[in-house]
Amino acid sequence: MNQTIHWTEHGQSMQAMWGGDSRHPAPTQIQTISQISAEQALQHMRQNIALLWRGDYHQGKQLLAAIKKRVHSKARTHNDFHKHRLQQAQHSRLFQQLLIEIQPDGQISNNRAPNVAGAITDVYGSPNHTNLLLPLHLLLGYIGAHEWHKTGVSIPALNEQKIHVPYGVFSPVRGEYLQLVAEAQLPEPCHSAWDIGTGSGVLAAILAQRGIAHITATDNNPRAIACAQANIQRLGLTGQIHIQHTSLFPEGRADLIICNPPWLPAKPSSDIETALYDPAHQMLQSFLSQALNHLNSNGQVWLIMSDIAEHLGLRSSEALPQWIQSAGLKVIHKTDIQPTHPKAHQHHHPLANARNREITSLWQLSAQ
Distance (Å, rounded) from C-alpha 89 to C-alpha 107? Predict the structure, then answer.
């Protein structure tokens, strides 16, 4: 968020910081509006003319909803994952063309607009010192994420204690695999554990609850580090869990190394998708290839993976077992569970055929 956007409004030169998704270009043409039809708005947006909404805030939300409805109704249904992702990226870029201006104190001058200081601080880490120009659809996502952050997600495997997750950190809302981690037999002995790519810190917390005395949780995302630290402190587990900002492994060895990497080998099309997509399974393969070098004698590697990439034709069913074997590891136990999240049972989603067959597994591995 360091690019300044300029536009002219009522004959005056205006400027604000650009807060749109970094994977899409900032607008070069901006037109201010307070009333327009969805069809007219789309015509401008398809010509790369961004629309800065000055009308009633709730009418702006209605306009965005009408735009999305028109775009989605005309969208082609792609059973092919790559075509589906391309279309998603094109839609995301289009929706980024309807803007809202936010003042440094989180106020929005539009009629009936809420104060969004909390949501903005959640995303950017500190209050703005200048006006911010933001796509309305991103702002609505920030507001929704902020409410989830405040409310928290109840975790059955933590006796219904809550994990609080801000925007940009993977949330355990679909946490069927957490119970697998809570119930799987630990290696013997198991005095130390590492949670690689900890995100919210939920896996580290479950391992601490199981009595492991020394746990290191790592991540390379500063937002995830701050999130995990806050959750671990809130749960009273700072005596057992150390959070470390690093890529993959810390120094030394552990009795148990656990990782829940991104499940889909694709390029993220937005900043928030980096927890979901791992191009060419780079993180997964790096983790597997290095894990044995950090494992104590009789230690185990626990890998949490979904097979949805196989159902989408993005990974063969033989690939993961081959990578495990090539890393000098062997499977000692594998536990499967079916997803319980609502998307797994949708029948009209373009990728429903894969989602309906998805299985999530806990792979327990040891040295060959």
Answer: 30
Q: How far apart are CA 141 and CA 290, in angstroms?
A: 37
Q: Model pTM?
A: 0.89
CA atoms of 237 and 228, how far apart (whole Å) = 11
List of domains in the chain: 4-148 (no CATH), 152-367 (3.40.50.150)
Residues 6+ apart with CB under 8 A from 35: 55
Q: Are 99 and 32 in contact (CB under 8 A)?
A: no
Q: What is the DSSP letter of 194?
A: E
User: DSSP letter string over 10-25?
Assistant: TTEEEEEEE-S-TTSP
User: pLDDT digits over 64-92, tens only?
Assistant: 999 999 998 877 766 678 787 788 778 88
**How many Å apart are CA 368 and CA 256, to the nearest integer?**
16
- Distance of alpha carbon 256 from its chain centroid, rounded? 25
Region 293-300: mean pLDDT is 96
Beta bridge partners of 245: 219
Task: Specify the length of the chain in residues.
Answer: 368
Query: What beta strand segments (E) does 103-175 contain?
Result: 132-135, 153-155, 161-163
Give per-residue pLDDT as tens, 143-175. Answer: 999 999 999 999 999 999 999 999 889 899 878
Q: Are strands 29-33 and 153-155 parallel, antiparallel or unpaired?
A: unpaired
